[in-house]
TrEMBL record:
Belongs to the complex I subunit 4L family. It is a multi-pass membrane protein. Its EC number is 7.1.1.2. The chain crosses the membrane at residues 6-25, 37-55, 61-82. The keyword rRNA processing does not apply. Keywords: Electron transport, Membrane, Mitochondrion, Mitochondrion inner membrane, NAD, Respiratory chain, Translocase, Transmembrane, Transmembrane helix, Transport, Ubiquinone. GO terms for molecular function: NADH dehydrogenase (ubiquinone) activity; oxidoreductase activity, acting on NAD(P)H. It comes from the Eukaryota. It catalyses: a ubiquinone + NADH + 5 H(+)(in) = a ubiquinol + NAD(+) + 4 H(+)(out). GO terms for cellular component: mitochondrial inner membrane; NADH dehydrogenase complex. This is NADH-ubiquinone oxidoreductase chain 4L. It comes from Cipangopaludina chinensis. Core subunit of the mitochondrial membrane respiratory chain NADH dehydrogenase (Complex I) which catalyzes electron transfer from NADH through the respiratory chain, using ubiquinone as an electron acceptor. One of its GO terms (biological process) is ATP synthesis coupled electron transport.
């Protein structure tokens, strides 16, 4: 029964991080933190759902690896944007500037 509660907590955490992503889209750092919270909730949910399957460890390891790559890529984009523009406002993104 505790796995059911953990699954519900993960679903609520995922929905709350999705709500934070929708409501706080002004800064790139807040977007990256919301995405990281979503990936952590998905990881716990994946681990709970695959706990009885023999390949649960390998699947979870692959997911954590991809989440770490996503976080490092987002941090690299954030650092380069702050160096070039001086801020991390999403409104300063423009695809028309070269």
């Amino acid at each position: 029964m505790s796995l059911l509660y953990l699954s519900l907590v993960c679903i609520m955490g995922f929905l709350m991080s999705l709500l934070a992503l929708i409501l706080q889209y002004k800064h790139l750092l807040s977007i990256l933190l919301s995405l990281e919270a979503m990936s952590i909730n998905l990881f716990v949910m994946l681990f709970v759902l695959l706990s009885n399957i023999t390949l649960a460890g390998e699947g979870s390891f692959i997911f954590v690896t991809l989440s770490a790559c996503e976080a490092s890529l987002g941090l690299a984009i954030l650092v380069s944007m702050v160096r070039v523009r001086g801020n991390d406002y999403v409104s300063s993104f423009s695809s028309q500037k070269c």
